[in-house]
């Protein structure tokens, strides 16, 4: 028995159980390596976004018409850029954007007010967040008035919203003057006026009574977490063959012990 065991010490690797275990290990290694590279890709994306936001927010504000015009699409490099504009708010045609949350995750509206520039073009200004008046959200809410007369505003440039980018479904049949997504093209059609592409998140002047609540600036994404996950996946991939080999060694020792127990006079410990 000992002789047969000695010649076939690793024969158990051909058993169904060990073949399946080995195949799983061989599949896990490249999978974990790929997951590590995917996390590194996310790390690069988030780092680039953080750098882009930081540069945009630290840049000096420029007149809004340097970055946009009617029908223009706001690019990634233009997003979050600080802009200024001089004109007047048109509260008669303002709308509210449904299902928006504030810093406390309360659901309400964003207030979108047309801002008529001195040259007659219209800039869409997101003035901030207000709470919903009731559970039905069918009536137009009470909105604090913006400054009257000519005023200069400052804000962050944003691209038009889409379902693909935001995950928000653009519902139809909404109550009057309520929308789901901010679209300069759609607002141009509604207002029958030249509307600048994109919209602006208002940062100044700040409402004196704190309402609408200003929308906070974009924060940094935790890119370091993705870097840590990448290292973790690669360590896991390295641990798989090590763990497999330790399981093999344990199986060999267990089988050697079982052989010795059955025939202690002849069994010899198997070397690994």
TrEMBL record:
Pfam family, any one: SURF1
Domain of life the protein comes from: Bacteria
* Listed GO CC annotations: plasma membrane
| Keyword Heme carried by entry | no
Instruction: From the Swiss-Prot or TrEMBL record, state where the protein is found.
Output: Cell membrane; Membrane
TM regions (residue ranges): 18-37, 191-207, 227-247
UniProtKB keywords: Cell membrane, Membrane, Transmembrane, Transmembrane helix
Membrane protein topology class: Multi-pass membrane protein
Keyword GTP-binding listed? The answer is no
| PANTHER family, alphabetized | SURFEIT LOCUS PROTEIN, SURFEIT LOCUS PROTEIN 1
Q: State the family it belongs to.
A: Belongs to the SURF1 family.
State the protein's name. SURF1-like protein
């Amino acid at each position: 028995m000992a002789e047969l065991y000695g010649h076939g010490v690793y024969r158990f690797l051909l058993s169904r159980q060990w073949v399946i275990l080995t195949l799983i290990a061989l599949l896990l290694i490249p999978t974990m390596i790929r997951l590590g590279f995917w996390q590194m890709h996310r790390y690069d994306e988030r780092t680039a976004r953080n750098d882009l936001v930081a540069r945009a927010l630290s840049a000096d504000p420029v007149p809004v018409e340097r970055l946009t015009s009617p029908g223009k699409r706001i690019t990634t490099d233009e997003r979050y850029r600080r802009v200024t504009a001089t004109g007047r708010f048109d509260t008669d045609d303002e709308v509210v954007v449904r299902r928006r949350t504030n810093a406390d995750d309360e659901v309400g509206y964003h207030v979108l007010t047309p801002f008529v520039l001195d040259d007659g073009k219209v800039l869409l200004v997101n003035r901030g967040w207000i709470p919903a008046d009731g559970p039905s959200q069918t009536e137009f809410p009470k909105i604090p008035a913006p400054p009257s007369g000519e005023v200069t505003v400052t804000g962050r440039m944003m691209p038009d919203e889409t379902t693909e980018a935001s995950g928000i479904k653009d519902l139809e049949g909404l109550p009057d003057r309520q929308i789901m997504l901010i679209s300069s093209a759609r607002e141009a059609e509604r207002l029958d006026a030249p509307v600048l592409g994109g919209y602006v998140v208002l940062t100044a002047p700040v409402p004196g009574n704190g309402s609408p609540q200003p929308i906070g600036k974009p924060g940094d994404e935790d890119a370091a977490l993705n870097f840590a996950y990448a290292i973790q996946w690669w360590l896991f991939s390295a641990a798989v063959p090590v763990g497999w080999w330790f399981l093999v060694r344990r199986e060999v020792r267990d089988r050697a012990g079982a052989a010795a127990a059955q025939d202690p006079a002849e069994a010899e410990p198997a070397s690994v």
